[in-house]
Amino acid sequence: MSKRELVQYKGHEFLKQRLVLSLLSQRAVRIDAIRADDTNPGLLDYEISLLRLLEKATNGTRIVISPTGTSVVLRPGMITGGHISMDCPVSRSVGYYLEALAALAPFGKEPMVATLRGVTMDNTDLSVDTIRTATLVNYRNFGLDDGVELRITRRGAPPRGGGEVRFVCPPVRALRPLRFVDAGHIRRIRGISYATRVSPQTANRMVETARGELNRFIPDIYIYTDVYRGAEAGLSPGFGISLVAESTTGALMTAELCANPGDAPEDIGRNAAQMLLAEIMRGGCFDSAHQWLALILMILGPEHAAKTRFGKLTPRAIQLLRDIRDFFNTTFTIKPDPSSSTVLLTCLGTGYVNVGKKTT
Amino acid sequence: MDTKQTHKAHRVRKSGASAKKTQKKNAEKNNPKAFTMQSSQRADRMSRRKAELDEKKYHVPMADRTPTVPPPLVVAVVGPPRSGKTTLVKSLIRRYTKNTLTEIRGPVTVVTGKHQRLTFMEAANDISAMTDLAKVADLVILTIDASFGFEMETFEFLNLLQTHGMPKVMGVLTHLDEFKDNKRLKLAKKNFKHRFWSEVYEGAKLFYLSGIENGRYLDREILNLSRFVSVMKLRPLAWRSSHPYMLADRIQDLTDPEVLEANPKANRTVALYGYLRGMHMRGGDRVHIPGAGDYRIDQTEQLPDPCPIPDKERKRLDERHKLVYAPMSEINGVMYDKDAVYIDVKKSRHEEKAEAGEGERMLGELQKVGTISDRLADQQFNLFSGAKPLTASSVRRPAESDYAQAVDSISKNSDTDGSDTDSDSDSDAGSTIGGGDGHETSSEGSTDESDSEIDSADEDDILRRVDALDTNASDDSSDSDSDDDQGVERLAPIHTASKRVNLMELVYGQKLEDKDGLAAGVSVNDNAKSLAMDTDLDEHKLRKCFITNPGDSEDEQGGEDEDEDDAGDFEDLEADSDGEQQPNDEASGTADESEEDEDQSDEENEFGLPSDKMKKLQNKFERLYGSDDEDGEKKDFYQQQKDVLQKYVDDTRLAMDELSSIDYRWAGEYVRVVIEDMPTEFIQGFNPYLPVVVGGVSNEEGLSLITLRIKRHRWYPKILKTGDPIVVSVGWRRFQTIPTYFMNDRIKNRMLKYTPEHMHCSAAIYAPFIQPGTGFCAYHLTRQHRFGIAATGTVLENSQAIDVVKKIKLTGYPEKILKHTAYIKRMFNSSLEVAKFEGASLKTVSGIRGQVKKAFGNNGVFRATFEDRIKASDIVFLRAFHTIPIKKFYNPITSLLSVTYMRTVAEIRRSKDMKVPNKKDSHYKPIERVVKRFNPLRIPKSVQAELPFKSKTKHVKTENGTSRAVVMDKHDKRVADLLGQINLLHKDKAKKQREKVQRQKAEYVKRRRAEEDEADARRKRKRKSFFRLEGRNQKGGSAQD
Predict the structure, then answer these.
(1) Which of B433, B468, B702 is closest, CB to CB, to A288?
(2) pLDDT tens, residue by residue, B81-103
(3) Name one GO cellular component term (chain A) (predicted).
């Protein structure tokens, strides 16, 4: 009887997706040479927190970190879900952790109710607004409609954070195969412009310039201003904007920008709008920030063909495709569509069934 | 010839059974009034009943994944030994192909019709083989020896079928020629039929084979049977349509002979041939071979179908298309073996048995060719004349083990897709992308320090739109060639289609390292830079992406003005008309419908036809070509669900071409599957009579604790005990495991020592993941009882921890009793233990409840409070629950290799001839209870005096309690004596009288009985004479008549 071999990687890049794939495919993973040549070798605080979070969200997971912290072995257990709460380090926003949970939560044993505290928006990870208005909405393409919720109880801007979100996701037995190739045309644009511990007028200023940029293309724009006060506003001042464009077929294009110290709200609004336009122009049924989610959920679908269209494959999506092959032994067919300069991806689902979910 | 051919007209039957039948049928038609309903209530009830029956027919819709060219159906012929299985298979094969097989070994595939092929497999009489076959059979033919009756194998097999998805079952009664009496035969058939029905379902088909001719069943009866097989309809079974599987009909050993020579017990490389069923499969997939274990498929290969369905549509099957394929058995003297093809040169039986002559013996010697090493070992030669001849053994072979290792390593390297090399290259690639990323940012010297720090730390999440935007923009303005742009440009082929690059090669190709080294140019830009790029956005292109686009006329049908008015809905329609595809998501479903309606109204105008005529034409079209474009509203929910599933299947069929670049093997193909590292026993002990099933287990590999709902089989004579190992067959697997039975009492899972007799209970086992809802069946490996199936049930849950508890009672004794407080000893051994139980509830034998308070001292004594003062003689209980660890024992039954299995304690005792340990404490003894005597209640006088009258003890004196001595005088004494004497006499007289009466009575009874007897005898005599006379009279009378 041949044993299942360990999946092995080198380097700290793409750590999160590899850990997530390991848990979903139930294959052990070993990652070596994590920042081996760095002045600060080994895992960083947010990566350790991620490992801790994954341990909380699962049962039976064994994680071994070498004394130097430069190699990790994860032997996956079962995804359990349930109530999780964690204080995330402020080096990354909660979007970093939520992305991992978003891929795992539907396949848990119980509904997942995760409370994460930390920075809610920054310029490296998806902000909680985008996750709420786009990432979780994208679930519906896979048959996950009811009960998914992300509530932002407190906002926390970098550097000190102090925000809190509550993520609720019910488990599913199996997903629906994705058949989403028609990107459609952009029908409306929605957005949230938020500000914490700064003048409430800041949010309106961002909205104004963003609208000015987008109004040339479509009149149906509504950008909510969301100003948090007092204890709900976290520990640091900050503001930003998150924009979502929805197409006639339900494709969501997102862009977001968070202010760095010294940025003018007008610039943030305008830049975000232009980033959204660039995203729209790239086309596809999933924007570049959600290609990973689409790929993972496509591969976890039933044993039918799943097909979709991406604008341009991001380096991260390309690496995810390779990692998926390592973990699930499944490859995608990737075909260019010269007429719209997009990419068509087709795969056969692995027929993933949530074995942890109880039947009566 | 020139006259038109006339046929004899059909004459309708005017009498007989068939005429009567038509009369009855037509009665309703001829007199409809007589058959209308009489009561509305009844009609209502009938309609409800009908609705109920209709509802019962519904099954959860399942995707029917049967491929366009389906694989041959597996027909399992099952029955007890000597019930005619082989004869039946031979007869059927003879009927289909005109071939006679001398011996049936392994599966036999035959082309039986224009669209149908069958694979026959005979089940060996072995529970493992029967289990495996039950998992793959599409049709089961149960042979039953009618002269003997039903045997347990039949019932066991039916139970195996039921738990693994019930395929079609047909029964065949054989040995009917042994019934000489026609009446008894009829009765037997009827009884068999009804018994069979109660086991399978009412009306299940049972065939009768009445005799054997030329070693086969009668042709007529076999023809009937084959017709039934050909019209059979199958329902998809959930497990099989979601897993790939293959019934191997040929096995080949591909191991390098040199490796074997070095180590005859080396693991083999084995090729398994067979039709792939159920689902697609791919090299690198994980499979389970029941009886051999889990393996990774090294490679798969499609082979030309050995038994193809005739390509051209023909009226009937041509003789040359009636193929038979049975590589393991011998057809027309040709047999395929593991590593050779044998041709049997016919030899009659007596010849074989005859004593071999000189020449033949020599030939035989010559044929005994060993391996090269054997021959080398036998060889000897002289180096010098007169010296001792050298043999191979005397010469030391240089580093034999080294050689073997070398061969091993070669074979490993030749592995087509060694996963380790793959993953290495990938990871390298990954790191190059990411690493480059980080470097780029830092080298560029981005303006924002805090940003750059984070960027260099994280690469995997460079999903920022910022960078994507940048690459895109650079794409557009590719002529401006800064070094930064250079990098981006090199990456661009990965996503832009305009460049002629194979995307698959770029993403998955082997030459990744170089390519990705180039891709390292991706960078995260700060805002200012992205802003600069934004000005390059192609506004014309961008406008096309919005529904409000006015100038996009070339690829739209028209009606732009309307579009602008009506926002999104029309735009979607146009997207459809682009001819790309159909949107499938529900989100836009409603919008689509409304659009379609509008679409139709548009078309009416276009065709210029009046609407009613249009509708008529549309109806006609729908009638003729099916209603494809029917709206969802018209179909009921059930049909809708079915359609959705069908659509998925159709889409997958369409996508098969697209996926052809990936080496999927589809169901229905004849494939060769190569598996490496197969234990040598698989080849050496290969038995063609046992089925070899290759079942895909992609997502079911990790081990976990599994909760089962289990019920002891009602025919199994014993209940099952927790901790006794049992073989469970679930999914593809058969494995031995140690179950822990338990039952949930709504609060906790209480362990059960034994399964209940007639109820379901739960069981926890340790086994690989299995989908909840899958059926399973449990049995013992060695037959212990006449009926083998011990239990059946379903899988409920997979988890990593199951909390099964067992009650434990701790006892303690009071050491010191205060008012309501007592110090309890001997319950715990240390204060630490007490600390764990602080607050736990206690109870004494007499029912006084209490609570653990705190440890007292270090020796485990603790303070407890009670609701009342307890006694020194009381025993204090603490009722607690202890979690039972589930035994992690998983032992796949390797029946195709060598079987090692765990025995139950009872089995071990039996084999070692050990007695059950006799514990004296466990004996039941009569309970001796000492009657408790209570002292009378004494109330001190002083207290009594204080008591109120009501509560005072009352002393009631009795009058006749005492007897006094009487002293009589002389007269009194004489009187008393006289009276005594008189009394005595009287008593004696009365006694005599009583005896006399009894005697007389007995005499009377005796006399009476004698008289009665005499009277009876007299009466009897009289009756007899009377009837004799009467009889004589009648006889005489009749004689006279």
Answers:
(1) B468
(2) 999 999 999 999 999 988 888 88
(3) nucleolus
